[in-house]
Amino acid sequence: MKKNFKKYLWLWEFIAVAFILALGLVAKFVPNLLVLLIGIAFVVFGIFRIIPLIKTTGDRVLKWFYAVEVLISIVAGAVLIVLYYQEKDVNKIFGYIIGGVFYLRALIFFYATALRNEETDFFQFLLHIIFVTLGSAIIARGGFDPEDLGWVILIVAIITSGFIGFSGYNHYRNYRNEKAAIEITKKVQKEKIEVPTSEEIITPEDEIVIRDEEHKVPDREKSHQDEAELR
């Protein structure tokens, strides 16, 4: 299964490019649907994140902080979903929720790393710098229109699709080259096999004749020896 997945990785990458571009276009040209998509993302991300996060965190205080953060994210996502189906103007609420979730995530990250000695790396540090900056800017601005976020998501989707698409192109090219090499190898192996002619093929009847001839030769030699002794 794993081997087949790697073999057809290019296919999954092309599918991912299609989905990412579709998401970016939807976010830009159907901004109201963006509220629903982000709400679902918050809920799903929170549900899949909470159990592994709590189980792998040794610090009891951090466990509670992480649990509260994830629950807030899930509730925020649920609120966005409800607001979408109620068809209300959610511009300001939408911005405050996004900014609040970003700011809360960054705040807990810096608390965990600075005061609770949680291990981290440069990428996570940089990512949460972006989160706290965006969260603060959004809250200070008083929210934002989903159309503004649609532009951001579309640009990110195009850039991401470019990287994934390039990777998929390379994997597909390698797949085709490997397939062509296998076909060439099979062709060469077939050409090396010499097919025997009809004269070279020995049938069962021919084997019987050959055996009879082999038996006759010693008999003839013996008769010649007997004649020589009589003389």
How would you name the oligomeric state of the polypeptide chains in this document?
single chain
Order of helices and strands: HHHHHHHH
Which descriptor suits the 3D outline? Answer: extended
Q: What's the domain count?
A: 1
Q: If you average the pLDDT, what whole number results?
A: 79
Number of strands: 0
* Alpha-carbon Rg, integer: 38 Å
Outline the biggest β-sheet.
none
Q: Name the helicity range.
A: over 70%
Question: Whole-Å distance between the termini?
Answer: 85 Å
Class from helix and strand fractions:
mainly alpha
Question: Which segments are poorly predicted (pLDDT under 50) over 5 or more consecutive residues?
Answer: none
Share of β-strand residues: under 5%
Q: How many helices does DSSP assign?
A: 8
